[in-house]
Amino acid sequence: MPSVETRIEVNAPAREVYELAKDQGRFPDFMPDVESVTIVERTSHRILSRWKTLVEEAPIEWLEEDLFDDEAMRVDYRLLEGDLDKFEGTWTFEDGDGRTQVTLVVDYDFGVPTLAELIGPTLHKKVKENAEMMLAALKREAESRNAP
């Protein structure tokens, strides 16, 4: 199964960046390719949400489950239904003297082997670009909240 791992350093405390990442309903406010995130169900350690994003102007939609480990500052997510066969991974937030190292891992599968053979490298590039865009947007939002 293909996998993408991206990292970014954020000039803000890890707990603040983690809490921002947990507030997924706000993602469309500061993430350009995220059209909507609708929270279907929420508990203190779990969210079910419907996502609609754009990849090369094509809409991609899915229902996602996110599990929050507040002590470890980790989010595990997985697709429950949607346009991909598999889409899951983790967000981790490591504190480093007031700065945060955020790592986003995305494991994905289209579920159509012949299509994956044809557009696999392009899809991998797009998944990586999307992950980097999400991290960059999270960084901008977190750092704007901590600006003097």
Can you offer a commentary on this structure?
This protein has about 150 residues and is α+β, with helices and mostly antiparallel strands. The protein has a single domain, classed as START domain (Alpha-D-Glucose-1,6-Bisphosphate, Chain A, domain 4). The protein is globular, with a radius of gyration of 15 Å. The relative contact order is 0.25. It has a seven-stranded antiparallel beta sheet. The longest helix is centred in the last third of the chain and has 33 residues. It is about 30% helix and about 45% strand. A hairpin with a 3-residue loop joins strand 2 and strand 3.
Please provide a brief summary of the model.
The chain is of the alpha+beta class. Helices cover 31% and strands 47% of the residues.
Mean pLDDT: 89
The CATH superfamily appears as START domain
Distance between the termini: 44 Å
CATH topology: Alpha-D-Glucose-1,6-Bisphosphate, Chain A, domain 4
Q: In what range is the share of β-strand residues? A: over 45%
* CATH architecture tag: 2-Layer Sandwich
Note the overall shape: globular
Q: Secondary-structure blueprint of this entry?
A:
Layout: E1 3-10, H1 14-22, H2 27-30, E2 34-42, E3 46-55, E4 58-69, E5 74-82, E6 86-96, E7 99-109, H3 113-145
Antiparallel strand pairs: 1-7, 2-3, 3-4, 4-5, 5-6, 6-7
Helix pairs in contact: 1-3
